[in-house]
Amino acid sequence: MVPVSRRRFLGLAASATAVSALSGRLRAAWRPSPVRPPRADDCVVVSSANGLRTVAEARRLVLEERLRPVSAAVRAVGIVEADPDDMSVGYGGLPNEDGVVQLDSACMDGPTHNAGAVAALEGILHPARVAERVMDRTDHVLLVGEGAQRFALEQGFELQEMLTDAARKRWQQWLATRGEDDRLWPLDGSDPDDPMEMEEQRPWGTIHCSVRAPNGALGCCTTTSGLAFKIPGRVGDSPLVGCGLYCDDTVGSAGATGRGEAAILSGGSWLVVERMRAGDDPTEACLHALARVSEQTERAARWQPGLWRDGRPAFGLTFYAVRKDGAFGSASLLGRPHSRHFAVADGEGARIEESAILHVLGS
Question: Are strands 218-224 and 245-248 parallel, antiparallel or unpaired?
């Protein structure tokens, strides 16, 4: 028998406690009704709830124009990037502290296991398409700031003003009311039982899109204007491979929207894919990653108490996933039953489905 040191014993005990707590959260999670079994010959697209048009277009691009999944995702999220009414992505996105719209985006191709990304990109309408050029025409993965903009211009993209009048008004309202601790989040005064209220005070938003072609090939894209009124140069999870998105053509594809720092610190999208590799269905994989985020946040709350309220994280985060065989799912960190949604398109059409919820509010 191999002797176990006291340090090793305590470490094993702590690990067992963490696993037990994580398992308890998974058992308490709310899950929607199961979806139909996947069809191996289907094209399946999943996206955040703001992507209903995106999933329909991505599926059309794969089936009718024979685009590879990653290119279909990039082109389809462009619908939201160009929509001035979506203040979380692209044109019309809410700016940083200085009133400048800085965009983050990444895409990943399953068959080649290659990726491209841009961060803190200014003045370009479709950052996802620039990220695709980084992937296809360079040996790099991530370009940032001035260098990303210069590359975009070299590739034929044109500069344009990204700040709309509506977004400028929101920024000016924020300037008039910002406090001394405005760089600390979540903000005091928000309702911990209403994550939408928290998001409204310091909104963020993103669109993720994962595509599975009928032959099983995978690709994904995530694009965002990031946390509203962020420190100039702040980069969230969206352009970081393994955080805001991840794709492995042998397993599946996943992405995230919500608090970027939590997705970064957990390596969340990578974890979702790895849980699918271990045998989880997509919804289970998303819930597992969120339980890990919850456990990490509870520990961090000793130093950042604003992150943890009433036995749960005080912020929102959602993961989306599609598996190699076409199974799909999504889960959100916080919400009431039937309150969190995602978009999906398959042989049954484009529609909104309910996301699973890890921490059920009001329970």
Answer: unpaired
Q: Of the listed 206, 223, 224, 297, which one is catalytic?
A: 206
Rounded to 10 degrees, the C-alpha dihedral 166/172/174/180 comes to 160
Residue type, 307: L
Distance CA 6, CA 188 (A): 42
Instruction: Please identify which residue in the block is written with the tokens 């910002």.
Output: 178
Whole-number pLDDT of residue 192: 34
The answer to whether 68 touches 219, Cβ cutoff 8 Å, is: yes
pLDDT digits (tens, 9 = 90+) for 229-265: 999 999 999 999 999 999 999 999 999 999 999 999 9
Residue 206 annotated in active site: yes
Which residue in 248, 300, 257, 238 sits closest to 275, CA to CA?
248
Per-domain boundaries in the chain: 41-179+194-360
How many CB atoms are located within 10 Å of the residue 264 CB?
A: 18
217: nearest Cα among 256, 238, 247, 254 = 247
Give counts: helices (H), strands (E), the chain: 10, 15
Residue given tokens 């210069």 in the structure block: 150
Contact partners, residue 97, CB within 8 Å, separation at least 6: 229, 230, 231, 232
Rounded CA separation 363/354 (Å):
18
The closest alpha carbon to 244, from 199, 288, 277, 289, belongs to 289
Distances (CA, A) of 243 to 30, 124, 202, 264, 282: 24, 23, 21, 5, 16
Please name the residue that has the structure tokens 């979506």: 86
pLDDT digits (tens, 9 = 90+) for 46-89: 999 999 999 999 999 999 999 999 999 999 999 999 999 988 89
CATH superfamily of 41-179+194-360: (Glycosyl)asparaginase (3.60.20.30)
